[in-house]
Amino acid sequence: MRENVLRNLASRAATDSEFLRQVRKDLEDTLARYDYHLTAEEMRLVRDLRHQTAQMSDEELSRTLAGGLERRTGGPPARPAAPSWRGTGPARPARPGR
């Protein structure tokens, strides 16, 4: 999932009331007109959010999106810890006669 694309989409919806109105009216057509080409997973996420926020006014949704963007650090995900040498690699061979 491309977080930068979703963040850009949320930012536009939070700041461009005409875009938000169009997205709420016709999601797929509006995204295509604005050159948002989402993956199936991204589209599913946007549709779920649209369904969950259907009862909000445009102003409430704009504030919610803007607030969510402000809370995000926007930094890259944390790097995984380096693998430890303990417990990895071949086992010590058994001593003969034991």
Structural account:
This protein is an all-alpha fold. It has a domain at 3-70. It is 57% helix and 0% strand. The chain has 5 helices and no strands. It has helices spanning 3-15, 17-25, 27-33, 40-52, 58-71. Helix 1 crosses helix 5 (58-71). The protein starts with a helix and ends in a 27-residue tail after the last helix. The relative contact order is 0.14. The model is unreliable at 75-85 (pLDDT under 50).
Q: Kindly, what is the distance between the CA atoms of the first and last residues, rounded to a whole number of angstroms? A: 54 Å
Strand content: under 5%
What is the helix fraction of residues, given as a range?
Answer: 55-70%
The gyration radius over C-alpha positions equals: 23 Å
User: Can you summarize the main beta sheet?
Assistant: none
SSE-based structural type = mainly alpha
- Total beta strand runs: 0
Order of helices and strands: HHHHH
Shape: elongated
Mean pLDDT: 80
- The number of helical runs is 5
- Segments where pLDDT lies below 50 for 5+ residues? 75-85
Concise synopsis of the structure shown:
The protein has about 100 residues and is mainly alpha-helical. The chain has helices spanning about 5-15, 15-25, 25-35, 40-50, 60-70.
Helix-strand layout with pairing:
Blueprint: H1 3-15, H2 17-25, H3 27-33, H4 40-52, H5 58-71
Helix pairs in contact: 1-2, 1-5, 2-3
Throw out a few tags for this protein:
elongated; 5 helices; mainly alpha; 0% strand; 98 residues; single chain
